[in-house]
Design brief:
This protein is α+β, with helices and mostly antiparallel strands and 183 residues long. The chain is built from six helices and nine strands, in the order βαβαββαααβββββα. The strands form two sheets. The chain has a seven-stranded mixed sheet with strand order 4-5-8-2-1-3-9, with helices on both faces. 27% of the residues are buried.
Length: 183
């Protein structure tokens, strides 16, 4: 088992006890990129802070964990078999509707056409161009635009909270809300 951190960014409403007792919080927005679920940044605290900058009244970052070796998540970042299956469904949808489908459309079709809900408790994806810092790029060669992103903003949409390790959900930012500060 290889544990990895997940970070959820929340609006700061001066309610740290309520957050730790009731979090994580589910996103039910109609336009959620990976469908309804508990959204986290996978192992990227910097991305959690970047996301928090949009909250006008400040933000809170909470940390949880998952087992990276688990087979319980659809990995659209590093599992080529999962990407191939996703592409197959996307192509089928495109042929039916005569245009490119969106990611949530493909996920909903996977839920309908497969035993998705029994197989997966989370979805992992790297939304390209959602956050790209120049300092995170390392180019293959000087004369080409191809590069590796050393700090990719990978999102994890947790569909079932049992995916998280022991329901760990601790505030790590701002420091004033951290457990050590509350004592």
């Amino acid at each position: 088992m290889r544990l990895r951190y997940l970070y959820q960014t929340l609006d700061d409403r001066s309610n740290p006890e309520e957050i730790e007792n009731n979090g994580p919080y589910k996103c039910n927005r109609k336009n959620a990129w990976l469908g309804c679920g508990y959204y986290f940044w996978d192992s990227n605290l910097e991305a959690a802070h970047w996301w928090g900058k949009d909250y006008k009244d400040g933000y809170v970052i909470c940390r949880s964990q998952y087992d990276y070796d688990s087979l319980d998540y659809l990995d659209l970042v590093g599992n080529t078999e999962h990407l191939d299956s996703f592409k197959l469904i996307a192509n089928e949808i495109a042929n039916k509707i005569k245009k490119s489908p969106t990611v949530p459309m493909v996920i909903e079709q996977l839920k309908i056409l497969t035993n998705f809900s029994k197989l997966y408790k989370a979805i992992r994806a790297h939304p390209i161009n959602s956050k790209n810092n120049e300092e995170d790029k390392i180019f293959f060669i000087d004369t080409h635009t191809a590069y590796i992103n050393l700090n990719p903003p990978i999102q994890m949409c947790v569909l079932n909270k049992s995916f998280l390790i022991k329901n760990i959900f601790d505030i790590i930012y701002p420091e004033i809300y951290c457990k050590e500060s509350l004592v």
